[in-house]
Amino acid sequence: MSERIRLPPGAAVLLVLPDPTAQAVARVLEDDPPRLAIEAPPLDCRPQETVTLMFGPRTGRYACRATVAETSTARWVLHRRTPWVRFDARRSARFPVRGTAQVVCEGRTVAARPLDISEGGCAVAVGPEAAPAPGKSIDLALQLFGYAAHLRCTVVGTSPGPDGSVCLHLHFENLAPHQRAFVRAVVAAAAEELRAAS
């Protein structure tokens, strides 16, 4: 079903770049799957870079990965690499992730293992000697699916994690636009990976 989606001329798509994380809305010029031509967004990007595309309301958003084939001042041409995947962004569904992370709390930096992510927060595992208490504010550095960002979080709870670790349940705080772009792109990529594995 998602493979048959064709976006009409003038439809709005959100384009998210991975490094540095940035986003912009662009209008569709022509959709001939897997080729998609859009108005040139105000972003700096090189051909062959992989980006995330999204469209639709929060209650029925679709996302896919695409490669930038051509760029000019008037239009970009993209080639979709994956089918459109539908997800409901209102529910803040959590998706398992693999990557790297660091937690900075009160001037101390410790390694962490990302476990899952949603549009509202994430969970990471740390050693029991390094676990901050619920209510603490931390800085979290995440690298997931080729994207990287630093996020301000609040520890909303802890629980026993894998292999004797402690799982920190984190809520994202006061995200800037580029940080929201990072979270959206990672959630979309995680949802896509889960769909492909099912």
Fold blueprint:
Elements: E1 12-18, E2 21-32, E3 35-39, E4 50-55, E5 61-71, E6 75-80, E7 85-87, E8 95-96, E9 99-105, E10 108-117, E11 121-126, E12 137-144, E13 147-160, E14 166-172, H1 177-197
Please give a structural write-up.
The chain has about 200 residues and is mainly beta. The protein has 2 domains: about 1-90, Roll (Pnp Oxidase, Chain A); about 90-195, Beta Barrel (Thrombin, subunit H), CATH 2.40.10. About 10% of the residues lie in helices and about 55% in strands. It has one helix at about 175-195, and strands at about 10-20, 20-30, 35-40, 50-55, 60-70, 75-80, 85, 95, 100-105, 110-115, 120-125, 135-145, 145-160, 165-170. It has a 6-stranded antiparallel beta barrel. The protein is elongated and about 55 Å long. It starts with 11 loop residues before the first strand and ends with a helix. The mean pLDDT is about 90.
Roughly how much helix do the residues carry, as a percent range?
Answer: 10-25%
- Following the backbone from N to C, one meets helices and strands in this order, namely EEEEEEEEEEEEEEH
Assign an overall shape: elongated
Output the CATH topology of the largest domain. Answer: Thrombin, subunit H
Major sheet: order of its strands?
Answer: 1-2-3-6-5-4
CATH architecture annotation name of the largest domain: Beta Barrel
Question: C-alpha Rg, in Å?
Answer: 18 Å
Query: What class do helices, strands and sheet pairing give?
Result: mainly beta
Q: Tell me, what is the CATH class of the largest domain?
A: Mainly Beta
The parts where pLDDT drops under 50 for at least 5 residues are: none
Largest sheet: 6 strands, antiparallel, barrel
Nearest-integer average pLDDT: 88
Number of helices: 1
- As a percent range, the share of strand residues is over 45%
User: What is the end-to-end distance?
Assistant: 16 Å
CATH homologous superfamily assignment of the largest domain: predicted glycosyltransferase like domains
| Beta-strand segment tally | 14
